[in-house]
């Protein structure tokens, strides 16, 4: 059983259709400094609700006092968390999981794949990389969403691109939205990407993860350099 610690809600705000940003204040708890690898996740719980797992969207910071998470609405605990207001309290565990091995990507090209709320732990990776961008080769994010309005952190994408992160967005269900960009699955847009010296980090639904892995392996990328965050 995890040890539970109190955290205070600092802010909640819409991020995209069906997705909400949650910021927790953990100052004064043993949790400060416990987030050490991008891609790790924590457990949250509220009275009367089953606990749930949520990836940390903020990068590890030794003295950081705030954690950012991305909530996907549509189930009881996330919906209850979305209704919280600044000053409300939630119980949270220490980070779990191995996260993504940034040290394995140093000196190599890095491919990042995320769909939907799976961008949350990948955002933690991107924020970490930008602190020492020169330590990595080319970095490309393949980011998929169902509709054009379902891209979380859309207001940050231009910052990522300005910071040397190539962003490739694709929509699986454009409908009548007028979307003029790419459509289909993220792995369908690797194109002529140079894959001889790459490391890949993937986060999304199981079918997407398997599709990306299969495509990468078919292109000669060894399984040993394809990583999930758990």
From TrEMBL:
This is NAD-binding oxidoreductase. Residues 2-102 form the FAD-binding FR-type domain. It holds the Pfam family NAD_binding_1. SUPFAM superfamilies: Ferredoxin reductase-like, C-terminal NADP-linked domain, Riboflavin synthase domain-like. It comes from Pyxidicoccus parkwayensis.
């Amino acid at each position: 059983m995890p040890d539970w610690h109190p955290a205070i809600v600092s802010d909640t705000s819409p991020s995209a259709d069906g997705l909400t940003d949650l910021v927790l204040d953990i100052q004064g708890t043993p949790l400060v400094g416990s987030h050490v690898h991008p891609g790790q996740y924590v457990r949250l719980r509220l009275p009367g609700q089953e606990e749930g797992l949520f990836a940390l969207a903020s990068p590890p910071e030794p003295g950081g006092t705030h954690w950012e998470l991305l909530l996907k609405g549509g189930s009881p605990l996330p919906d209850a968390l979305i209704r919280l207001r600044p000053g409300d309290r939630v119980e949270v565990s220490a980070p779990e999981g191995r996260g993504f091995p940034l040290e394995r990507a140093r000196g190599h090209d890095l491919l990042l794949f995320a769909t939907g709320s799976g961008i949350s732990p990948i955002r933690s990776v991107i924020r970490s990389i930008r602190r020492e961008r020169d330590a990595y080769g080319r970095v490309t994010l393949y980011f998929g969403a169902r509709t054009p309005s379902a891209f979380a952190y859309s207001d940050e994408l231009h910052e990522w691109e300005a910071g040397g992160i190539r962003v490739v967005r694709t929509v699986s269900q454009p409908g009548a939205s007028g979307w003029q960009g790419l459509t289909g699955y993220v792995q369908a847009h690797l194109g002529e990407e140079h894959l001889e010296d790459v490391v890949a980090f993937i986060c999304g639904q199981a079918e997407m993860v398997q599709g990306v892995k299969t495509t990468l392996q078919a292109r000669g990328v060894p399984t040993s350099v394809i990583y999930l965050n758990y």
